[in-house]
Structure formats: C-alpha cells, structure tokens
Design brief:
Blueprint (H helix, E strand, L loop, with lengths): L5 H8 L3 H9 L7 E2 L5 E2 L2 H15 L4 H8 L4 H37 L7 H12 L1 H32 L3 H22 L2 E4 L6 E2 L3 H6 L6 E5 L6 E8 L8
Antiparallel strand pairs: 1-2, 3-4, 3-6, 5-6
Helix pairs in contact: 1-2, 5-6, 7-8
Length: 244
Amino acid sequence: MSKYTTGEMAKLCGVSVRTVQYYDTRGILTPSELSEGGRRLYSEDDLKRMKIICFLRDTGISINSIGELLSGDDPGSVISVLLEQQEQLLREEVNERQAKLDMLDGIKRELKSVENFSVESIGDIAYAMENKKKMRQLHAILLITGIPVSIFQWTSVILWIAAGIWQLFALYVLVFIPYAVWITNFYFKRVVYICPQCHELFKPDYKEALWARHTPTLRKLTCTCCGYKGFCVETYGKEGKNNG
C-alpha cells in the first residue's frame, strides 16, 4: 500500500504543506504512521479523507463542523447530500455561463448586420436577445391558433369547389374575421420596436404596423420619438427601455 509524506499529500490535494499539518493538529487528519525519523506518513485512506476534507472546505463548511461530521456515525449520507447540492450549484453555474455565451454569440452575429455601429447598437441587440424567448413563444401562439383556422379555410374552399357546398366557407369567413381582429390586437399589444436612430422603444400607429413591409424581425415604420422612417427591430416588451 502506498505511503505519502506531508508534501506529497499537499501536492496531490492542491493545498499547502501547512494546511495538511494544520488538519493534523486539529485532529481531523491524523497520519497512519510515523517513520523512524518522525516524519508523518499517510495511507490511501488518509488521502481519500484529505480529499473529502478539501471538498467540504470548498463548500464553505467550517473546520469544527468537518471534524464533527467525519466523527459521526454516518458521514457518508451527509456527504452524499452535500455532493448532490454541489452538483446542482455547478450545473446552474454552467447553465448561466452558457446563456451568457449564447447571448454574446447572438450579439456578435447581429453586429455583422449593423451598418452604423455604436454603443447604443449593442444595447438594442442585447435587449432584443433577452426577449427572444418571449418572441418565440408569441410566434408559437400565432402558429398554434392559426393552424386550425387554416385547416378550416382549405377544407371549406375544397368543399365549395368540389361539391358546391359554399355554406362552410361562409361560416369560415364569419369565424375568421373576429379571429383576425383578436390575433392582430393580441400580437401588437405585446411587441414594441427599437428605433435604430434614437434607440428608443416605441409603439407605432396600429394601421401603419399592420400594413408595413416586414421580415420576421424587422418592420418598416415611422419612429414616434424622433420621426425616423425605415426598418425598426421588432421585440417583445413595453415602451420606455431607456427611460426607466
């Protein structure tokens, strides 16, 4: 069985020699034996114990508590719970960092399409990126509610053409008009536009927004704040991004 000196223990566990010696004086890591010259020698079990102590210290547990924990009847159960908590914390940290990386990646991609780069441009892109998930959810609602209406539409058209049954199409028109009014109001109440000129959020005139040229992320509008006319970035949110 391997034997480790104080220095070797310190190196294997990433701590100082004084730390190993300190744990000895506190009675939580006693060496298995002493050499003829009086040097501390640690076993494989001591090394495992040392690694557990280092882990517990990293989780913020005090030396006194570690001593009590390791001298208890069932330290393994408690350590198991601590390991699960530590794993959960690390996973959350990884997810948070991944979210930040995704946002940075998105900003870099969006900046390539910005003609007049400025600090405000980064702010606009960051704001749109933060609300991207809500915009996807909003588009999903439009898609989910629109599919049954589209099926109803094509079914009624086919029956009218193939069998001369026009009544179903008339019913479709009666259903579609209130649906179209509702879904349009629902959508435009939940989106705002970022002006690339003054970088303010604004809500355009309803009729202008409805008939404006647009892409999935842009709409050609007149900014109500500075009068700029051109494509503005569509995003989820409320007015007043830069005022509050």
